[in-house]
Design brief:
- With about 70 residues, this protein is mainly β.
- It is about 0% helix and about 45% strand.
- The protein is built from no helices and four strands.
- The protein has a four-stranded antiparallel sheet with strand order 2-1-3-4, with no helix packed on it.
- The chain is globular.
- It starts with a strand and ends with a strand.
């Protein structure tokens, strides 16, 4: 059984932009498409790894991603 990664993406305004759960790909990586984030600014991406269906007290990692504005 492959681990599952659940994630939440919070936008610059503090609102949840996207949330979901994805399995890892065949190479063991999780790839989130961040190209469609709606507005320029700093986004916080929180991830939690669930192994064997165990969702008790997961370790949560927070990553920052900056979207620059177009001209």
């Amino acid at each position: 059984e492959r681990p599952e990664c659940r994630y939440v993406i919070v936008g610059p305004d503090g609102k949840v932009v996207r949330a979901g759960a994805d399995p890892f790909d065949k190479s063991g990586r999780l790839v989130l498409d961040l190209k469609e984030l709606p507005a320029p600014g700093r986004y916080s991406i929180m991830t939690a790894l669930y192994v064997g269906g165990n969702s008790v007290n997961p370790e949560i990692k927070v990553f920052e991603h900056r979207v620059t504005g177009g001209s």
